[in-house]
């Protein structure tokens, strides 16, 4: 059996007792050939450190935000603008996906579709 690997990724959580500075983590990712990273939130300094690195980023929407974003398209617009668009445009962060950190339920499906369509549309305009 032959298995082909197209890249190695890592999970990066920021809620810990002794976090390393984001620039140190990014350096470690690059030195170890990590090409993809999943963030559990859209921490500004973390995203800022990932700018212009080429590392593919998946940004998580924290569970405590899901209800608000699912019930308000204005809140969803704002979240995408501040946590995706701003970092892609201004800092060249290679954000490829957003994800929900809890299981999808019916009320979150609408938000998922909205965010997915917005991000795909924006990424299409960027290329």
TrEMBL record:
GO biological process per UniProt: carbohydrate metabolic process
Gene3D superfamilies assigned: Glycosidases (3.20.20.80)
Transmembrane segments: 99-123
Keyword Nucleotide-binding among UniProt keywords: no
InterPro entries named among the record's database cross-references: GH (IPR017853), Glyco_hydro_17 (IPR000490), Glyco_hydro_17_plant (IPR044965)
Swiss-Prot/TrEMBL keywords: Glycosidase, Hydrolase, Membrane, Transmembrane, Transmembrane helix
Keyword Chaperone: no
GO MF, any single term: hydrolase activity, hydrolyzing O-glycosyl compounds
Family of this protein: Belongs to the glycosyl hydrolase 17 family.
Protein name: Glucan endo-1,3-beta-D-glucosidase
UniProt organism field: Chenopodium quinoa (Quinoa)
Upper lineage: Eukaryota, Viridiplantae, Streptophyta, Embryophyta, Tracheophyta
């Amino acid at each position: 059996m032959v298995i082909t690997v197209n890249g190695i990724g890592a999970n990066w959580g920021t809620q810990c007792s002794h976090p390393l500075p984001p620039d140190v983590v990014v350096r470690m990712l690059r030195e170890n050939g990590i090409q993809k990273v999943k963030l559990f939130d859209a921490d500004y300094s973390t995203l800022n450190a990932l700018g212009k690195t080429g590392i593919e980023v998946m940004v998580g929407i924290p569970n405590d935000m899901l209800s608000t974003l699912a019930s308000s398209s204005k809140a969803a617009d704002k979240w995408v603008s501040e946590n995706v668009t701003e970092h892609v445009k201004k800092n060249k962060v290679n954000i490829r996906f957003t994800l929900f950190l809890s299981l999808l339920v019916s009320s979150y499906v609408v938000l998922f579709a909205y965010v997915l369509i917005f991000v795909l549309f924006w990424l299409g305009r960027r290329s």
